[in-house]
Design brief:
about 350 residues, alpha/beta, TIM Barrel, 2 domains, seven-stranded mixed beta sheet, three-stranded antiparallel beta sheet, 16 strands
Length: about 350
């Protein structure tokens, strides 16, 4: 049993330690874009991102992830250092993030899932959004085969989902307690089912669902992934580092050691072929502690990477494991809210 008083004492002691030792933060972004719908909460608007960068420029020591790794290795960490990272490899990292990073002179690392480059497919969560949460017509009842089991879904009156329905519910996201329609309920449930599956099985489910669509909106979705040429362009900027995010963005802890090794090493090889030099950084897909293992981190190190990022909250301090670097997930906050949270993060 955890006593509230003990917890408060530990938290106070941690805050006190953080005031007297150098600490750093690694910020995790995904997308810089304004979209009408963002069910996964991956998007930060260009306006808010510019406000974030302005605050970082004024109140922190903005450095590259590579410099942070060097400082940790050399025990020369500078207090209030901040490194920016992006996961997945969306096109808007080039279109919207890079110009602002260059304007403020702040470096960033972009972790790319190499198997999506040139594939013509969206990330699975974006495909699922398009099939269930965008205007289209689906059967009132449907069945999907998921990893040998039958998933039965009922849409009933929401089988036909029009533009007005979409506009009415476009601000919904997965952190909401309630689901406004049966489509949102199935989106939430299928996200849970698809997340741990190997990429091949996820694609089979999505293809099966796509085949059921009777009529789909022709509006182009803004979920395009960076091409090889665009990655090469980004890499030429001195303030941009390209890192690896596996091939197919799996939950690595659900794969065998040999499958994990293939995901990790193949991505490194594919990206190095594009940029023409060694890839030094890696980010675990999803990145929570249950999404990879200590053995996974060892495989990353054995594959020739110099440092790796996770996705659980903590500050970075001297002695932090450079192959399990914690990060802070950034949402679409305005500058005032971002600054408030920044101070909270540094206090721990």
């Amino acid at each position: 049993m955890r006593l509230p008083g003990i917890y408060r004492l530990r938290r106070a002691a941690k805050r006190l330690r953080n005031r007297f030792r150098p600490t750093a933060l690694i910020l995790l972004y995904h997308r810089i874009i304004d979209l009408p719908s963002d069910p996964q909460l991956l998007c930060v608007s260009s306006k808010h991102f510019a406000e974030h960068l302005n605050i970082l420029k004024k109140y922190t020591h903005s450095i590259s992830l590579q410099r942070l790794n060097q400082d940790l290795r050399n025990e020369t960490l500078i207090n209030r250092s901040v490194a920016i990272t992006f996961d997945d490899g969306y096109f808007d990292n080039l279109q919207n993030a890079e110009p602002l990073l260059g304007q403020f002179g702040i470096p960033a690392t972009i972790f790319v899932a190499s198997g999506y480059i040139g594939s013509g497919r969206e990330f699975w969560w974006d495909e699922l959004e398009r099939l269930l949460l965008r205007p289209n017509i689906l059967p009132a009842a449907f069945r999907l085969s998921i990893n040998g089991r039958t998933y039965q879904g009922e849409l009933k009156e929401w089988a036909t989902y029009g533009e007005d329905d979409y506009r009415c519910n476009q601000e919904w996201n997965i952190l909401e307690k309630d689901d406004p329609t049966s489509r949102h309920r199935h989106y939430r449930t299928l996200c849970q089912f698809l997340r741990p599956l190997p990429d091949k099985n996820r694609r089979e489910v999505l293809d099966e669902l796509a085949a059921l669509v009777c009529k789909e909106s022709q509006e182009k979705m803004a979920h395009r992934i960076l091409s090889a040429e665009e990655i090469s362009r980004l890499d030429k900027y001195s303030f941009i580092e390209i890192g690896s995010h596996t091939v197919t963005h799996p939950v690595l802890s659900k794969l065998s050691p040999s499958e994990q090794r293939a995901e990790i090493r193949t991505s490194k090889i594919q990206l190095e072929k594009i940029v023409g030099h060694p890839i030094k950084s890696f980010a675990f897909p999803y990145g929570l502690k249950e999404d990879y293992t200590i053995e996974t981190a060892t495989l990353v190190q054995e594959s020739g990477f110099e440092y790796a990022c996770s996705n659980f909250y903590d500050i970075v301090y001297q002695g932090t494991d450079r192959f399990q670097l914690p990060r802070v997930l950034v949402r679409d906050w305005n500058g005032e809210e971002f600054k408030r949270r920044l101070e909270q993060w540094f206090l721990g």
